[in-house]
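Justification of resources, computational component.

The compute hours requested in this renewal are based largely on the per-chain cost of generating structure records like the one below. Each record pairs the submitted sequence with a full structure-token output. That output is archived, and it is also reused by downstream analysis tasks.
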Amino acid sequence: MKQSILIIDDDLDLLNLLKTKFEKDGFDILTALDGEEGLSLAQKKPPDLIVLDVKMPGRSGLDVCKNLKEAGSTKTVPVIMLTSKNEEMDRILGLELGADDYLAKPFSYRELLLRIKSILRRTASKPLKQKRVVKLGELTVDNVNHEVWVGKEKIFLTLTEFNLLATLMESPGQVKTREFLLEEIWDYNDGVYSRTVDTHVQRLRTKLLDVGHSIETIRGVGYRFNKA
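The structure output for this chain reads:
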């Protein structure tokens, strides 16, 4: 069965170009010219992935992303946000709202395709090679059902956030560099995207409530998960 991609962008020329290219690469494509229509399409039949432009008239891509990640039917659908080249704040906000990745315009189709394939590979991949359930203090992680608990409270994480946490917990006390995490979680090996790691870690800490401090920053290197 073909994997489906929903593209939400008010640039009709770009929309048609991406639709043609993605279909040639074997994807089923849905398109929307504004955020309202995109949300409606996503909620009627959640796609395997969403490509979402930030700057749109009416409902912005950031607002659409927030709504997607709050709705039960779409909260686990990966989102790649398209941002303006110089709008770093949009990229940061998008990641904080739950986007899985971002790409600055103008971009190459090949780069976008590589990002999409990387995310879809992670979505379809088997759980990390760990014990089914890992419990460290108040934190419990079920690697089969992708569930996380802090005490008795269930915590919702995006797929990227879950894989980041699971990777850090594979070896408590061991430092994982940003470069390692980029390659392991995002399939990137270019340090230019290190802000992606930092933003996801910040969001993960917030979601983990009282145990968020267990993820320690090793300045200039990366992060490690502490048992205590």
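The two ends are 45 Å apart (CA to CA). The chain has a mean pLDDT of 87.
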